[in-house]
Amino acid sequence: SALDTAKGGQAAPTVTICLVDELDYLLTRDFSVMYDFYSWPQTSAVPFIMIGIANTMDLPERLSNRLTSRAEVDIRRLIFKPYTQSEILTILEMRLTELDLPALTERGRKYISMKASSVAGDLRAALKICQRTIEMYRDEVNERELVYKAGNKIRGQKRAREESEGSAAAATTRDATSSAVGGPEPVKHEDIM
């Protein structure tokens, strides 16, 4: 309906091209969505080309006869081969060069491209692996920072305690604690803290 509104309110272009990605996800039991797509070229006052991109190889065969038997519908199939390892690696390097991520070294990118090419050459698989690698790396860095900060805090507390044990205030505290307890041996500073 948005397309119909756009067609009616503007000067007609020479050709209208509509690109629909993931077309196979629009299949319904009654083919109503697909039927609307296929009817647009017939109702258009201008030449209309619809390009559908699908991962399903047998999409034309799965379409109902009601869609494919229309005289003006010309279905042509263009099959793209899966990405090779080198193509995936090139794409990853192009996308990741600006990020300068230590988590994704050259060796790591080669490994990811090899794994993704072995799974039907799906670039999305490679990108998901990269995304997960980056997430895991960031989590690890954050965890290390927390451990480092906690370690610094503990070291700081220990240093403060050691310094205070040698101070006059610490001696006064020991003496006061010793006489309050009534024992001959002074209470250790660690027992107080």
Automatic annotation (TrEMBL):
The record's annotation in InterPro entries points to: ORC1/CDC6, P-loop_NTPase
Main localisation, per the record?
nucleus
Give the compositionally biased regions (Low complexity): 166-180
One MF term in the entry's GO annotations: ATP binding
Q: Disordered: where is this region?
A: 155-193
- Any one Gene Ontology cellular component term annotated for this protein: nuclear origin of replication recognition complex
User: Mind listing the UniProt keywords for this protein, alphabetically?
Assistant: ATP-binding, DNA replication, DNA-binding, Nucleotide-binding, Nucleus
Q: How does it assemble?
A: ORC is composed of six subunits.
Spell out the protein name for this chain: Origin recognition complex subunit 1
Question: What species was this sequence derived from?
Answer: Spumella elongata
